[in-house]
Design goal:
483 residues; binds NADPH dihydro-nicotinamide-adenine-dinucleotide phosphate; alpha/beta
Length: 483
């Protein structure tokens, strides 16, 4: 099996196996080949990982911020040196084209380690003078944190959670999605090579039940989940029992609004990036593309031409820019939505066909004349399906864009400066773009509002989600008492 890891889990600085756990087959999305088999964590493995994280955290938190930052930055350097090897593994894990993984996954993980590695030495509290007495705050680690990942960005998700967590002096037990168990193990290996003490970053495999057992464990102080809204609801509720900190990065059905004065080529590029990168398997995708009626036909004609540029094929071929979907299930879900679009009267402009080759391939689909009530305009597809809706009025389109339980992302294309800012100001979403889409640099906060999430990843604000302040009141004057 060409991607078989040394063992299923990485705990306390070493690979460990327990074949008593349910086997998990790793299937390469591009051809259906079995490339690895790991085992779900047993209760004993979960226990071992949490104990290792508990012990490792004390050692790690005792180090200075400068020392912690140095280790994170060394890990980033190692990731950059091995970008090609890690990108190939990401492609095997997910099926995403190498053209994407070479620039978007390990490199994004390295950026987060560099960014939070740099911040580690700057973390602190404040001094507040209260008359002659004074107060200072200490920024302290939360303790053992749990990261639970989705399958679309296994390296990036592991790094986006580990980097700020570790910068603050926490330890982590990370559970990748059962669909993509391979990449996080490599990150764990690299951390050890970079000098991270054993037990600070651990990876255990498993299905939802393993995630659930981590979320309820009393040793855990925080849970950060990237996943769907239904899972988020369960994890949030389970974490409440023991009052854990949570970050929830969940799904979306984000609007992308294209006004009549937009630069058409840029807007089309934005719509393509917002729907077809990673075969449409991106949480922040702008899948409801509202196009002003005056430019609708021009937009659709040019979009259909640009869609011819999709190169569908072997993800390991760097010329391929559109790969397979993660698995057969996700492909079938997408096909159901394509059927619903047709049945409910949307006009299929292009795509939506299975590709005659092994693997989970479907051509990217664009529907026009989509209305707000259609299933494809309301539900998250998580596949390569763009819905184009018409509009004529600014207030009307804002109201329609906001008429969803989700609030992850939103975009606006217009050349009118004031309109751009006015419209994003009214859109109910955590991450928004004007004349751009889906760029998420590590320096900037990322996350959702409404049902799309709680808290933010990345940016300086992430530090607040991975640490807490202890207030220390210092009495400098005699203590007064009533009696
Ligand atoms: P899921 O919600 O199905 O799973 C997410 C993770 O949670 C997996 O590791 C899963 O394990 C685990 N899990 C499932 N049930 C439980 C439970 N009861 N307790 C604890 N953990 C549990 O999401 P997908 O993996 O299918 O990913 C797709 C979803 O993720 C989409 O909705 C997408 O929008 C969202 N997403 C959000 C992002 C964001 O940043 N906002 C980024 C990427 C994706 P297992 O896989 O083994 O079942």
């Amino acid at each position: 099996m060409k991607a078989q890891p040394t063992a299923s889990h990485f705990i306390n600085g070493a690979y460990i196996e327990d074949t008593a756990g349910t086997p998990i087959d790793v299937i390469y999305a591009a051809d259906g080949e079995l490339i690895a088999r790991v085992h779900s964590a047993t209760a004993a493995i979960v226990d071992q990982a949490l104990n290792a994280a508990k012990a490792g955290q004390k050692i790690w938190a005792a180090k200075s911020g400068v020392e912690r930052g140095r280790v994170l930055r060394r890990a980033a350097d190692l990731i950059r040196e091995r970008n090609h090897e890690l990108s190939v593994l990401e492609t095997l894990d997910t099926g995403k084209p190498l053209q994407e993984t070479l620039v978007a996954d390990a490199t994004s993980g390295a950026e987060s380690l560099e960014y939070f590695g740099g911040l580690a030495a700057t973390l602190g509290g404040e001094h507040i003078q209260v008359g002659e007495d004074f107060v200072y705050t200490r920024r302290e680690a939360l303790g053992v944190c749990v990261g639970i990942g989705a399958w679309n960005y296994p390296t990036q998700i592991a790094c986006w959670k580990a980097s700020p967590a570790l910068a603050c002096g926490n330890s982590m037990v990370f559970k990748p999605s059962e669909t993509t168990p391979l990449c996080a193990l490599k990150i764990a290996e690299i951390f050890i090579e970079a000098g991270l003490p054993a037990g600070v970053f651990n990876v255990i495999q498993g299905l939802g039940d393993v995630g659930a057992s981590l979320v309820t464990d009393a040793r855990v102080a925080k849970v950060s989940l990237t996943g769907s809204v239904p899972t988020g609801r369960k994890v949030y509720a389970a974490a409440a029992d023991t009052m854990k900190h949570v970050t929830m990065e969940l799904g979306g059905k984000s609007p992308l609004i294209i006004f009549e004065d937009a630069n058409l080529e840029d807007a089309i590029s934005g719509a393509i990036n917002a729907n077809f990168y990673s075969s449409g398997q991106v949480c922040s995708n702008g899948t409801r593309v509202f196009v002003h009626a005056d430019i609708k036909e021009a937009f659709l004609t040019r979009l259909a031409e640009r869609m011819q540029g999709a190169v569908i094929g072997d993800p390991m071929d760097e010329a391929t820019n559109f790969g397979p979907m993660i698995n057969a299930r996700q492909l079938e879900i997408t096909e159901k939505y394509i059927a619903a679009g047709k049945a409910e009267g949307a006009r299929l402009i292009c795509g939506g066909d299975r590709v005659d080759r092994p693997g989970n391939y479907i051509t990217p689909a664009v529907f026009a004349d989509v209305t707000d009530d259609m299933t494809i305009a309301r539900e998250e597809v998580f596949g390569p399906l763009m819905s184009v809706l018409d509009f004529t009025d600014e207030d009307e389109v804002i109201a329609r864009a906001n008429d969803t339980e989700f609030g992850l992302a939103a975009g606006v294309f217009t050349r009118d400066l004031t309109r751009g800012h006015r419209v994003v100001g009214k859109l109910e979403a955590g991450s928004t773009w004007i004349n751009q889409y889906n760029l998420t640099p590590v320096e900037t906060p990322f996350g959702g509002s409404k049902m799309s999430g709680v808290g933010r990843e990345n940016g300086q604000v992430a530090i607040n989600h991975w640490s807490e302040l202890k207030t220390v009141y210092v009495g400098m004057t005699p203590v007064e008492a009533a009696f």
